[in-house]
Amino acid sequence: VAPGSRCLLLLLLLLLGILGAPALGDPGPLEDVVIDRYYIPKICLREAQMGDFIRYHYNGTFKDGKKFDSSYDRGATVAGVVGVGRLITGMDRGLQGMCVNERRHLIVPPHLGYGSIGVAGLIPPDATLYFDVVMLDIWNKNDKLQITTLSKPERCNRTVENSDFVRYHYNGTLLDGTPFDSSYSKGSTYDTYVGTGWLIKGMDQGLLGMCAGEKRSIIIPPFLAYGEKGYGTSIPPQASLVFSVLLVDFHNPKDGVFLEHLEVPESCKRRAVTGDFVRYHYNGTLMDGTLFDSSYSRNQTYNTYIGKGYIIPGMDQGLQGVCMGEQRRVVIPPHLAYGENGAGKYKIPGSAVLIFDVHVIDFHNPEDPVEIETVFRPEGCNVTTRNRDFVRYHYNCSLLDGTQLFSSHDYEKPQEVTLGANKVIEGLNRGLLDMCAGERRVLIVPPHLGHGESGARGVPGSAVLRFEVELISMEEGVPEGYLFIWHGEPPASLYEQMDLNKDGGIPAEEFSTFIKTQVAEGKGRLMPSSDPEKVIADMFQNQDRNQDGKITPDELKLKSDEDQEKIHEEL
């Protein structure tokens, strides 16, 4: 600084001191509002601007800390429009730019407060005012619904439309995070129709387009919520609402059953119809994936007739047309399931949409015959099996889902049986008739010709059985009730020829020798059996009426004679 300038500066300072300039450290009267933003939230989605509607709490004091007003003491927030002259100028300026949940200290000089007049009995003239303010809500009449998708399922075949009935969980808060309601605390979903006026307008709009399982945040301005009146004590007037929503499920009263074919066998010779008896496994879930029932957990299929009202209507419809072995998803609206009341036994809530993932094991009709498919038949097949024939055959037995049950190959020799003697299930007996030696067949045996509703050891009740059979050999049988038949007329003096030592009595050895001789000479044949000695022993026992170990002339009778006398079955 030049010497002349330095002298001028010193003179000016001296004059200011003489005239009484403010001391250093006293800034003098405030020209504008002093703003101390002592708490700013980390996330600030919006700042209050001129023309916005705001809600806030405040404490008002003088410089000495004496309180002159407080919204807290009145138990109600202050609501109004900022920046349009409805507030004192200092407050109008001090509130602009605030975020929700921001806190500010404001110092308002008199000319931006109540000036030289003040407020009688409350604020003296030329008072500087101190406000501690927290912003709670900001909105504008031009605001729209704010929807944020928080999560969404990968699969979404359908979204909510007007007139749909929805079930959803929610947490409801004010814009500052104050909770006012929650469906979770009540332990049940909120259930209602969309777009029919049962909800506030903002929620009606905010639920549209949602998928089952989707989560959304929905911010609703007051004019689409409870407006100027608020709601009870929990939602103040002119409050913006924030809902965190999880859509559990939805349906429309006009909905039918929705089918999704997950896996259909390449070969489907027959589809289930009304009146068929179906055995199937299933997992039953709600739309949010909650499992409410499973046949797998019981290790037992669910067995029922379809189309006859034994099961819920939706499942009656959903099983129509299934193939054996098919896997199908059946989505059933509540009016075709358990309705508004739900099913407490299965923990199914009221108005719940049900999803069944079904695996059809088999089905049949009570009128079904045995299905016979000839896989191989030898050329020149002239002799076929009939009832009473003795047959040897190999077989594999399984369920229609491929589960192996039994096999003759697990044993050293083929299965042996006399057809028509009630020694095997009726369906297998029928399937073995009219076969040639060497022929192979596949038999499908319905349960009423198999092991019935009760099943058998290793065989589930009402199971359709599949047999792969191969006829190894066959022996011509004898009529029912006979153990031996003559190829021609029996000897005229049968007893005398049978009594080999002519002692008037025929013991078991003589009887056996005689019968074996007749068979060897082709004069007659025994009932086919794997144990011919037992057949002969049974014959002898039948003829030895008094069981004294020998047959007398009076005891010996031909079967034809016995039939006339209705006494006994024998020769």
From TrEMBL:
- Signal peptide location: 1-25
- The residue ranges of the PPIase FKBP-type domain are 51-139, 163-251, 275-364, 388-475
Major localisation: endoplasmic reticulum
Q: Which locations, inside or outside the cell, does it occupy?
A: Endoplasmic reticulum
Enzyme Commission code: 5.2.1.8
Q: Which InterPro entries match?
A: EF-hand-dom_pair (IPR011992), EF_Hand_1_Ca_BS (IPR018247), EF_hand_dom (IPR002048), FKBP-like_isomerase (IPR051989), PPIase_dom_sf (IPR046357), PPIase_FKBP_dom (IPR001179)
Please list the reactions this protein catalyses.
[protein]-peptidylproline (omega=180) = [protein]-peptidylproline (omega=0)
Keyword Translocase carried by entry: no
- Chain intervals with Basic and acidic residues compositional bias: 545-571
- Chain segments carrying region Disordered: 540-571
Molecular function, one GO term: peptidyl-prolyl cis-trans isomerase activity
Keywords attached to this Swiss-Prot or TrEMBL record, sorted alphabetically, are: Calcium, Endoplasmic reticulum, Glycoprotein, Isomerase, Metal-binding, Repeat, Rotamase, Signal
- Residue ranges constituting the EF-hand domain according to the UniProt record: 494-521, 531-566
GO cellular component, as recorded: endoplasmic reticulum
Record's function text: PPIases accelerate the folding of proteins during protein synthesis.
Q: What is this protein called?
A: peptidylprolyl isomerase
Q: What is the lineage of its organism?
A: Eukaryota, Metazoa, Chordata, Craniata, Vertebrata
Quote the gene name from the UniProt entry: Fkbp10
